[in-house]
UniProtKB/TrEMBL annotation, chain A:
One of its GO terms (cellular component) is mitochondrial inner membrane. Pfam families: Cox20 (PF12597). InterPro entries: Cox20. This is Cytochrome c oxidase assembly protein COX20, mitochondrial. The gene is COX20. Keywords: Membrane, Mitochondrion, Mitochondrion inner membrane, Transmembrane, Transmembrane helix. Belongs to the COX20 family. It comes from the Eukaryota.
From TrEMBL, chain B:
The keyword Translocase applies. It comes from Sparus aurata. This is Cytochrome c oxidase subunit 2. It is a multi-pass membrane protein. Its cofactor is Cu cation. One of its GO terms (molecular function) is oxidoreductase activity.
Amino acid sequence: MAGEEEESNKGFRLLGILDVQNTPCARDAILHGAGGSLTAGLLHFLATSRVKRSFDVGFAGFMLTTLGSWFYCRITNAKLRVQQRVIQDGIKNKVTYEGTVLDPTNKPGAETSSRPS
Amino acid sequence: MAHPSQLGFQDAASPVMEELLHFHDHALMIVFLISTLVLYIIVAMVSTKLTNKYILDSQEIEVIWTILPAFILILIALPSLRILYLMDEINDPHLTIKAMGHQWYWSYEYTDYEDLGFDSYMLPTQDLAPGQFRLLEADHRMVIPVESPIRVLVSAEDVLHSWAVPSLGVKMDAVPGRLNQTAFIASRPGVFYGQCSEICGANHSFMPIVVEAVPLQYFEKWSSLMLEDT
């Protein structure tokens, strides 16, 4: 059982560097990059019939698409993480402060009745 | 904890370590792209039939390979500095623990409320119970409440040591005559292992650190029991 878990967690490493399976956003970025590379290279070749230059354009397309997809996904994830933490703190604080003066859901009129004597 | 043939970091158990993991992914993606670029250029250079024996300079490519690395370095430096300052934020700790390094064990003092102190020696291999980890288990764990900011003051009684727990993203040198401060929040309950990270003599590899994060009521029970024992 532990062996099965280890095998499923051992991600495939591109160039021995990037663990595509276990790094968030990596798989999507590489796939988008591959798609962008194919599109850019093919379009350039169809327009110019220059093979080597089309490969160069395709590679440039790969770099730009991968970077763009990576940053977009990471920034979105980072914003979600911040939101998640704010919500968690809000839930924790609500439980702690419920019924007291510090409860953010207290209406102004009810504050005087909830103050401790 | 670490597992055999592990290449990456351990799972994060604190918010700072999560940020460090994300930054590591970011830097690794940049490294991967640069390596891909270099590999592509090598293949292109090796496979081209074009030769020009009279190239002396080229201002355009010089500008590109100056500006581009500077831009990449900024892309790496900005999140790095953000985490650096995040790690130094003062977070109003709920508990202060002193971790003192000795040859070759750690001692922990919880002196906020009562005078609680104990030593933490590595469990010898012959004394391990089935399922326990060789060279990592200790007889007394440093128990902390989960989801609470903890301040650890690290020092040493004899030679240099270093108090490190990778899954919490914490490492602080223990210097005799000096008090170093570090802080963390354990975001989930569990047992987190670390090892002394500064060479300190014959048994440097045999003075592990074990931190156990438990809910507050269990921490209170544990501290009462420890006080009764001492």
